[in-house]
Amino acid sequence: AKRHRDTMRGLLALYVGGMGARGKNFYNDMAVKYGFGDAAKKIQDLYLDGHKRDAEAEVPEAWLEAGNLVGPESFVKERIAAFKEAGVTSLQVTPAFGTDGLASIAQVKEWLA
After folding, report:
1. From the first residue on, what is the mean pLDDT of each consecutive set of 10 residues in the chain (113 residues)?
2. 77: number of CA atoms within 13 Å, CB side?
3. What is the domain extent for residue 97?
4. Residues 76, 50: one domain?
């Protein structure tokens, strides 16, 4: 599961580090609200200074675990319940692994019902 979560490092680094300017980046602000303020600053500084790979390396594993539904069925169901309890009303589901993306989306939809 870790190697699958690691594929999200580049996307998080792009959004937190490269979408907007220092002091005006929705995703960076969101990272701060999630408790990853120090990492968000490092990621943004590195990304905007052209060190994209170093920025990716700064994405904390805990952040990847908290924000991605990657793992066995029991873990995914547990995370869905936690998101629901926290007031989350929509999830973006992008099946990145497996052989049948539509079946994966259907399965998650069933768990959301």
Report:
1. 82 94 92 95 97 96 86 88 90 73 86 85
2. 7
3. 70-112
4. no
